[in-house]
Design a protein that fits this description.
Number of strands: 0
Number of helices: 10
Number of domains: 2
Largest sheet: none
Structural class: mainly alpha
CATH topology of the largest domain: Rna Polymerase Sigma Factor, Chain: A
CATH architecture of the largest domain: Orthogonal Bundle
Length: 197
């Protein structure tokens, strides 16, 4: 692809918070197509959060649908006191937690034997992808540590955005991220050299 072709390619749309608010107001005024635009703008981010939280590709579409059904039912009561995305991601994480409670499963990538303690390194071999091992390690953390790390390190949320999304104090979020990272360091110590490559 040459320079001219790159210049002619459509540029990614920059999402504006004002645009979200405008769409919500249009929806409240009776324009249901505005809701479709909100879904288009945010569905991939919602799907990504679901995947990172559950590590279950089979559940992504169902839970994303549940998220947007909940948003549709409650959007007319949106107060415009916080970012739409904060509200949306909080609903997404709550739906993921509901799913986990209902199915009583842990968010892990590697299968567990009932009589075996979880070991994130249990399936390492010469062909194992290091990224997968790191994902396994993150998945092994408890919710209160895993979700803040996921939002901060994998999704790039600010501490304040995470605090708003999880309805916690910012100090609590910082503490949980610190503890989670320390736990991950201990879990991944056996492959420390490989991670430094």
């Amino acid at each position: 692809m040459d320079f001219e072709e790159k210049e002619n390619m459509p540029q990614p749309q920059i999402l504006s918070l004002d645009d979200d608010f405008s769409l919500i107001k249009s929806f409240i005024d009776g324009d249901e197509s505005a809701f479709g635009e909100l879904v288009k703008r945010h569905k991939e981010k919602v799907r990504n959060i679901i995947y990172l939280t559950l590590s279950n590709t089979n559940a992504i579409d169902d839970i994303a649908q549940e998220v947007f059904i909940t948003v549709f039912k409650n959007l007319k009561s949106f107060r415009f006191e916080s970012q739409f995305t904060t509200w949306l991601y909080r609903i997404t994480i709550n739906k993921c937690k509901d799913h986990l409670r209902k199915t009583k499963i842990r968010k892990i990538f590697l299968p567990l034997n009932d009589d075996e303690e979880y070991n994130v390194l249990s399936s390492i071999n010469e062909n194992t992808d290091i990224k997968q091992i790191v994902r396994n390690a993150i998945a092994s953390l408890p919710d209160k540590l895993r979700i803040p790390i996921m939002l901060k390190d994998l999704e790039g949320f600010s501490y304040q955005e995470i605090a708003d999304t999880m309805n916690c104090e910012i100090g609590t979020i910082k503490s949980r991220i610190f503890r989670g990272r320390e736990t991950l360091k201990n879990i991944l110590k056996p492959i420390e050299k490989e991670l430094m490559l």
